[in-house]
Write a structure and sequence with these properties.
alpha+beta
Length: 197
């Protein structure tokens, strides 16, 4: 497949579209009880409706729930979900909620504040997905079942989104409630159909 589809070449051609993530104004420490009355998720929110083609839950951003230690696989999992939503119809990634919809909260990730967590996530996007996709992404913090969550909302991207994994770039889409990787001719045909030539 032609290198014309690589994220680096797309970034150069569309650098004028680059914008940084919307950073939250709130700076209180994660887990502070005074947050509980702020930004509470409505009962009709994506969390209440469960995982769908446009909604994905992740318990944590960077800490493995089994080992209780930072794990790059957790970061990759969150970024993979975000990339798949961007390459499909957009949607919402909610961090701090388990796959079955139970509130986990953000404390386990160990960030000093929600602002620090947002900055960290922004850096991951810059390094692994590309800042030129930031215009499609919004980050906010919400309350759910007496816990705090990070809600990452993204719109349908106008350009293919590749996720860097070491020396390779991988392409993901959303199918039902699952994330699927495409490569080879399937990737080529999907990009041609979804984004045009």
């Amino acid at each position: 497949m032609s290198n014309n589809w690589t994220s680096s070449s797309l970034a150069r051609r569309h650098s004028k579209r680059t914008s940084r993530l919307l950073m939250p104004r709130l700076r209180r420490p994660i887990g502070c009880s005074s947050w509980r009355s702020l930004g509470r998720i409505a009962t009709s929110s994506p969390v209440e409706l469960g995982e769908t083609e446009e909604t994905e839950f992740k318990s944590t951003l960077r800490v493995n729930m089994v080992t209780r230690q930072p794990d790059p696989k957790m970061e990759f999992s969150a970024l993979r979900a975000l990339a798949s939503l961007l390459n499909s119809n957009g949607g919402k990634l909610v961090i701090g909620v388990s796959d079955d919809g139970k509130a986990v909260g953000l404390g386990i990730d160990g960030f000093e504040s929600e602002d620090r967590m947002s900055i960290y996530f922004n850096k991951l996007i810059h390094e692994r997905i590309g800042s030129h996709h930031s215009a499609h992404i919004r980050v906010r913090f919400e309350g759910y079942d007496d816990a705090r969550t990070m809600a990452v909302t993204c719109s349908r991207s106008r350009l293919p989104v590749f996720l860097k994994d070491g020396n390779s770039e991988r392409f993901f889409i959303r199918t039902g409630t699952s994330t699927r990787e495409l490569s080879g001719i399937q990737q080529f045909e999907y990009i041609k159909s979804r984004f045009g030539s």
